[in-house]
Fold this sequence. Notes:
The chain is built from five helices and eight strands. The model has no long low-confidence stretch (mean pLDDT 95). It has helices at residues 4-19, 81-96, 131-134, 153-162, 164-174, and strands at residues 24-26, 41-45, 54-59, 70-76, 105-107, 118-124, 135-138, 141-152. The chain has one domain. The protein is α+β, with helices and mostly antiparallel strands. Strands 1, 2, 3, 4, 5, 6, 7 and 8 form an eight-stranded mixed beta sheet that branches.
Amino acid sequence: MVSNSEYGQEIQRHYEECWRASAKSFRWHKGPVFELPETFSVLMFEPRASREMFTYATCGMSLPSDPQPLELHLFAPEESSRLVELLTAVAHYHRTGSFLKLGETVNFGRPWFPGSECSYGLISRPYLDGPQLEWFNIGKTRVRFLWLIPMTYSERQYKKEFGLEALEARFEAASFDYLDPNRPCVV
């Protein structure tokens, strides 16, 4: 089995190869971060010609020994340390609360960006990147990489009532702007 350090390096390499960009690594230092793997970080990818947005991604949220290793990423219209904190909090919940998986929602505890109604996140397939990003083998460990989409309380309730596919169909029909913190609710 690979070490946690090697595991984190492979996760970062996978992101960098899929997104054809180098990452900057950040670690949040407040709160119970000592409960996260010591190799955990949040990677930030700056906008570029082929991807005109900031991308933040967990690196080492999962461990090779986890039953279903998972890493998450989200997109943003601007650089913000709030997103490093947000992904650190989500990773902490994943490690100490309940292992997260496709289709679940998480409560951010505050808006994604100030003034936004999006204070929840939906764990979805990485539709912008496809299976090339979604699945990656590190040794004998198969890691899944999913998209954390900021969403409103009403969208969360709609998903609870009608299911993930119904909500994603509403997102698609509305051509929602996943980069706009002030986007209208789709339900």
